[in-house]
Structures
1.
Amino acid sequence: MPAAFDFSAWIRHRALPFWRARGLCPNGFGAVEHIRADGSAALYPLRRSRVHARQAFVFAAAARDMGTDDLPLAQHLLAFAHRTAASGFIPIASDNHGRPVGDAHRLYDLAFYILANAECPAPVIPWDWLKQALAKLRAPLGWWDDRLRCAPRTQNAHMHLFEAASAAHRATGDPDWAEVADECRALFLTVFLQPDGTVLELFDAHWRPVKQGQRVEPGHGAEWVYLGHQDPQIAAAADLDTIFSAATRALGHAGFLPDQADDPLAGRRLWPQTELLRAALAQRARGRVLPPHLTPEAIIQRIAHSYLTPQGGWIDARDHAGRITAAHMPSSSFYHIFNAWRAWHDVQPRAGLTAGARASQPRRQQIPDHNPFVPPRAPSPIAPLR
Ligand SMILES: O=P(O)(O)OC[C@H]1O[C@@H](O)[C@@H](O)[C@@H](O)[C@@H]1O
C-alpha cells in the first residue's frame, strides 16, 4: 500500500514553520512548554528543561538532514538551556523570565542536553561541562536519576542516556562517551530486559525491580527495538524479535500502542506510535515480514490521521476509545516525530564524520509544498495558523 501521507512535506512545510512561529518564547527564554489547541503559545506554564534541549535537537537535526536554516535557532535554544544551569545543576524547569526552577539535576534532562549537543556541528555546551554534569550523578553501577538520588531508579533515563552517549561518541569519537553507552547497554541487557521481551521501568538503589508501581511501557520496548537494531552489540546479544512481539502484544484493536501494557483503560499518547513506527522499520530492515497492520506504511497512516494536524501540530493523547484527552500540544513530542521521520527516510547516524564535514553535508532535500494528507482529511480541531 503506498503511503498517502507525505511525511517530509509535513515536517518541512507544516511542522517546522508552525513550531518556529509559535513554539518559542518571544522574549528569548527558550521553547514554550506547549501550544494550546487553539494554536496559541502557552507562555506562562513552566518550561521543563528537557523541552529546550529536545527542540534544539529537532532544529539542529532539520538543519542537518533537510538543509533548513534552523541551526542558529538550535544553538540559541541549547545555549539558553545551558545558561539555566549556571549553578552547575540542571533545573527541573525555567519560568517565563528564564529563571531556573528547582535544581534536581535530572539524568533524563541531562541526556537531552548531551543529545542536542551531539546533533550540532560544533558543541554549543563544552563537552567537559557535560561530562562533569554526568559525573555528579555517578552511582556504583549506572547513574542516579537525580542529584538527591531519588528512588525509584528508572530504565527510561538510562535508555535516553544510551541514545545520547552513542550520539556523542559518533560526533566526537571520544571513548569516554562509548564507555557511558557501554554501561547503559549492559544495564539494558542484564537488568531492564526480561526473558519474555518486556522491559521493566522501575528499580531500587541496587537495581532490583520494585513491585509497587512497576509497569511496562510498550513504547519503550519499541524504542529499544530501534536502538538495538542500530547497535551491533545489542542486535547480537538481544532477541529483538521477542522484544518487538512483547511490545506489539499490547496493541489495541485500532492498531495503536497504549502508554502502558496490561491496562485495558490505558490511554495512548502520540510518542509510542512514533516508536512503533521506528521499531517496524527496524524489523523490516532486518528482513522480517510484518503483518499488514504493522507495516510502516500502515502505521504512518494511522499516526497521520489520528494525531497529526494539517497545520503542523499534533493531538498528543487519546483515551482507549480514541477520544482526545490532550488539551494542548507538548513541544516535547517533536523530538519523537522527527526521529520517526529520520527512520522513515532511513537517515542513518553518520559515524566518524568530523564536525566540519557534517556541517558541509546537509541533505538539501527538495520537498514540494502540497497537501501532505492525501486524500483530504477531516478538519482538525486545531486552529489554523493566523
Ligand atoms: O512526556 P514527554 O516529556 O513528552 O516525553 C515523552 C516520552 O518520551 C519517551 O522517550 C519516554 O521517555 C517517555 O517516558 C516520555 O513520556
2.
Amino acid sequence: MPPSLPHQVTVEKTPNYFVDRSVPERVHNFNSSIKLILIVRNPIDRAVSDYVQLKYKFYKHNTSGTYGSFEERALDKCTGRIIKSYDPIKRSLYSRHLDRWLTYFNKSQILILNGENLKVKPWEEMLKVERFLQLPPKIVRDHFVYNETKGFYCVQTSKDVTTTTTSAFQEAKRWSESCLGDTKGREHPKLRPEARKALQEFFAPFNERFFKKIGERFDWNR
Ligand SMILES: Nc1ncnc2c1ncn2[C@@H]1O[C@H](COP(=O)(O)OS(=O)(=O)O)[C@@H](OP(=O)(O)O)[C@H]1O
C-alpha cells in the first residue's frame, strides 16, 4: 500500500483478493478496521467475463491449440452439469467467498455495490462509496460522459492550470476524460438458452445465500 497522509484515503483494487483464501486473514492482520468494497454483478455474466479474459490470455501466450467455448469449459459434455472447479464458475460463488471475509470482518465494514448499476448510473454507486467512506459528496452526474463506442461512461476530471498569454496569466480549467481500458467491455459470447438455464439453476441457491447474508437482493434471475 502506498503511504498516505492523515487527510488522504488510500484505495487499492485487486479483484482476486475476494476469492483468494489466504487474503482475509492477511488483510485483517494488516488493518482490522479497514473498509472493504465489493462490486458484484450477475454471477453468470461475471463467469463469462472471466472466461473471455482467460481466453484472451490463452491466445496471447499460445500459438497453437484452442481454448474452447464457454459451454465446453463450464458444462460437462456428457451430463450438462456445471463444472464447479472451473475457475470462472468457482470465483462467481459469492456466498462462499463472502463467508471467509465475514469470519474476520464485520458486515458493516463491507460495502456491496451493484455492478450492473455501476455501468448505467455510476454516479449512484459513487454516492454510496462517498457515504461509506464518510467523504463529502462531490461526485455528480455531470462528471460522467457516456461513450457510445465503449458502452461505458467515462469520467470527466478537471485540473486548474495557469496559462500565459502575451498580456497576462490566466487561470483556466483543463478538462480531461478518463475512460476504461480496452480490456473492459469486450464482447461476451451468447450462451445457448439451455446452458443459461443450467447456470441460473446452479447459481440460484448460492445467490439466495448471498442475498441473505448481505440483507439485499439483486435481479439475477436472467
Ligand atoms: N467502472 C466499471 N463499470 C462497469 N463495469 C466495469 C467497470 N470496471 C470494470 N468493469 C467490468 O468488470 C469486468 C472485469 O473487470 P475488472 O477490472 O474487475 O477485472 S480485472 O481487473 O481485469 O481482473 C469487465 O467486464 P466485461 O467487460 O463485461 O467483461 C469490466 O468491463
